[in-house]
Automatic annotation (TrEMBL):
PANTHER family for the chain: GANGLIOSIDE INDUCED DIFFERENTIATION ASSOCIATED PROTEIN 2-RELATED, MACRO DOMAIN-CONTAINING PROTEIN
Pfam families: Macro
Record domain Macro: where: 1-173
UniProt name for this protein: O-acetyl-ADP-ribose deacetylase
InterPro entries: Macro_dom, Macro_dom-like
SMART domains: A1pp
SUPFAM superfamilies: Macro domain-like
Domain of life: Bacteria
Length: 173
């Protein structure tokens, strides 16, 4: 697996899949979720709505992932995951965030996808400190079995400040 940090708008990446930092309802929101739905068009919302509810209003519990087509996006698929809300770090946030990365990679492998772009899951509205999120993410990705050597993981940061934090974490790993 190769892991690189890129500074970009995730919705512009022509990869096999991009990851959406969604909420459990999977019916859109702000941040990168809103940007992905705007760029993909209304068919994405319909595809999300068609995913079955685990409990009322919950299509994807925190730490899990679901896949849909990418519709008008340059990416072929969207892998929706729900990161943890930051509550100070003692509420299982790191385990849940690591689970997001593993679940997304598992779906990518199951669908034979190689190029996958991740946003900084939970680092916006959900308040996860980016230094800690980067470390958790990279550790989780590095633990993916070596049986998937073709995976090309792009950690997509929206701005240079975030990219510097993620690149530093990658260099430390
Ligand atoms: N490309 C790349 N990164 C982006 C983009 C983009 N177009 N737009 C934002 N980011 P957030 P969360 C960065 O808040 O913290 C939504 O309402 C952003 O700068 O999108 O997991 C959902 O519906 C930040 O670094 O996701 C949920 O309710 C990172 O993406 C909730 O927000 C994640 O920020 C999820 O919160």
């Amino acid at each position: 697996m190769t892991i690189t940090v890129v500074t970009a708008d995730l919705t512009r990446l022509a990869l096999d899949a991009i990851v959406n930092a969604a909420n459990p309802g999977l019916l859109g929101g702000g941040g990168v979720d809103g940007a992905i739905h705007r760029a993909a068009g209304p068919a994405l919302l319909a595809a999300c709505r068609a995913l079955s509810e685990v409990t009322p209003g919950v299509r994807c519990p925190t730490g899990e992932a679901r896949i849909t087509p990418g519709f008008k996006l340059p990416a072929r698929y969207v892998i929706h995951t729900v990161g943890p809300i930051w509550h100070g770090g003692h509420a299982g946030e790191a385990a849940l965030l690591a689970s997001c990365y593993r679940a997304c990679i598992a779906l990518a492998v199951a669908h034979d996808l190689q190029g996958i772009g991740f946003p900084a899951i939970s680092c916006g509205v959900y308040g996860y400190p980016p230094e800690q999120a980067a470390s958790v993410a990279i550790t989780a990705l590095r633990d993916v079995p070596a049986a998937h050597p073709a995976l090309d993981v792009q950690l997509c940061c929206f701005d240079q400040r975030m990219a510097a934090i993620w690149q530093h974490a990658l260099n430390q790993a």
